[in-house]
Known about the structure:
Number of domains: 2
CATH superfamily of the largest domain: Translation factors
Mean pLDDT: 85
GO molecular function, one term: structural constituent of ribosome
Largest sheet: 6 strands, antiparallel, barrel
Keywords: Methylation, Ribonucleoprotein, Ribosomal protein
Region (Disordered): 222-267
CATH topology of the largest domain: Elongation Factor Tu (Ef-tu), domain 3
Protein name: Large ribosomal subunit protein uL3
GO cellular component, one term: ribonucleoprotein complex
Strand order of the largest sheet: 1-2-8-7-6-9
Amino acid sequence: MRTGVIAKKLGMTRLFLEDGRQVPVTVLHLDNLQVIDQRTADRDGYVAVQLGAGEAKAKRVSAPLRGHFAKAGVAPKRKVAEFRVSEDNLVAVGEEIVADHYFAGQFVDSTGQCQDPGKVFKGKKMAGHLGAVRVTTQNLQVVKTDSDRGLIMVKGSVPGSKGGWVVVKDAVKKALPENLITPAATRSKLKEAQRIAEEAAAAAAAEEEAARAEAARLAAEQEAAALAEAEASIAADKEAADANADKTEELDPAPESKDDSAEGEDK
């Protein structure tokens, strides 16, 4: 069992899928969601992580909470919640959880503040308290996530008002996917993955450039070899032609001049 997240409900919109269908989604925002404390079985009797989201002015936070946030090394938070986890899914204090904690197609449960039932039943003795009930909607499907902006888009409606805080967890009535990120998708892991991807891209670019340079070198060598071979062939042909010309001159006698032939006739 891994931790859930605290998200702010931004409202609803629609997304268009690749096949052209439009899906109504609720947009949830992870606002600087960080781990502020751990609960361990040896010290506290149970295992959990305490998360804080949003930003709060220090003067509006009580002194004990300011000390609690300072001990964790994080800024004062607007909303704090605890999530029970297994011992192998504890997250380090100070880590920031990002939207990649969930992925498209996964099912989640969302809990938020709701007005229920939203009306006064006939015959109810007045005055009564209305609303202020926390409701959990189960098996909501994640349509899309955006880790850069910290957005999780969930199919359908989520309990709570616009701008309110909701809690999102892995669906308890659905089998957990095998490709879940455990213990959590954190900012440090995202940066590490980006660094590895950049290094791999740089290495691939360097290999491609080296292969291009090697191909250019081989082409230049082949061109130079072909040019040298052509020049050698031309020189050999020229030498052969000169040799043939010399042999022809040696074999053919010189022709007699007309004056010599005329003198012979007079004699």
